[in-house]
Amino acid sequence: MGCCASKPETKKEQQHTKGDEKSGEKDRERMLKLGGILEQPTGDVRDYYKFGAVIGKGNFGIVHKVTNRKTGETFACKSISKRKMVCKDDVEDVKREVQVLMHLSGHPNIVKMYSAFEDNQYIHFVMECCEGGELFDRIAARGKFTERMAAEAMRSIVSVVNHCHHMNVVHRDLKPENFLMTTPGDDAVIKATDFGLSRFFKDGSFMEEIVGSPFYVAPEVLQRHYGKEADIWSCGVILYILLAGYPPFHADETQQIFKKIISKPLDLSSKPWPQISEAAKSCVRGMLARDPRKRLT
Length: 297
Description:
Keywords: ATP-binding, Kinase, Nucleotide-binding, Serine/threonine-protein kinase, Transferase. Residues 49-297 form the Protein kinase domain. ATP binds at residue 88. This is Protein kinase domain-containing protein. The structure is a single chain. Helix content is 35%, strand content 16%. By secondary structure, the protein is an alpha+beta fold. The chain has 2 domains: 18-127, Phosphorylase Kinase, domain 1 (2-Layer Sandwich); 135-294, Transferase(Phosphotransferase) domain 1 (Transferase(Phosphotransferase), domain 1, Orthogonal Bundle). A hairpin with a 5-residue loop joins strand 2 and strand 3 (74-81). The longest helix has 20 residues, at 147-166.
């Protein structure tokens, strides 16, 4: 997999300053006085679900397999540590993720959230359980996808993005790690997850905050003036990786990656691109057009 197997840190994974931590303590104390981050009583998640094995870990929390005590149904519970919410933005990201997931509910390729709970230490999201790992793991295991396999995966991914944009949501962190597989088999359904960096938007409005993961960030994001088209760029990077096994713009240091995203010509001539169809290369070119006005929609 080469560079695809490395994961430069995202906005969420960057360290906060001590000043942020002090501010975060005050934010947490204030939220608890107001009735919690979710701002409504939720009950104790363990009264409703029996916690099982750990099936995932991240910088902000942990994911357990849980069983509904009444029905016996299996779910995933994403528990986000309040101690990691060191500033107001972290709190707002969690609240927004709940809102976005509820807003986007019903799409077959978006992980369904069933309920949210809060206790003194964690925010808990009870979600459908996807036991096939990440799309990233599939790419790492195979090296790269055939054109047919890549097309099938991209149909699901683009369907998610189209639904998000139709519902006035921009994801802002599309990458193979944020797509889960429902089962270990080749017929698994792809499900989008982790909407913590997503935002609601209005057509014609622009965002300025630099967020996302370095390999997948659109050039206009780095220029702090972007809209929903940034998601299409990220899709183009995913398609490139699926077909080639490595990202189009890669380097050892984050700033070097950003420089290449801004100015390096797109390479569609090195291996394996001579063996890939012109139709597939045309799709990659269209998604990775540096001018968002010329990008595929």
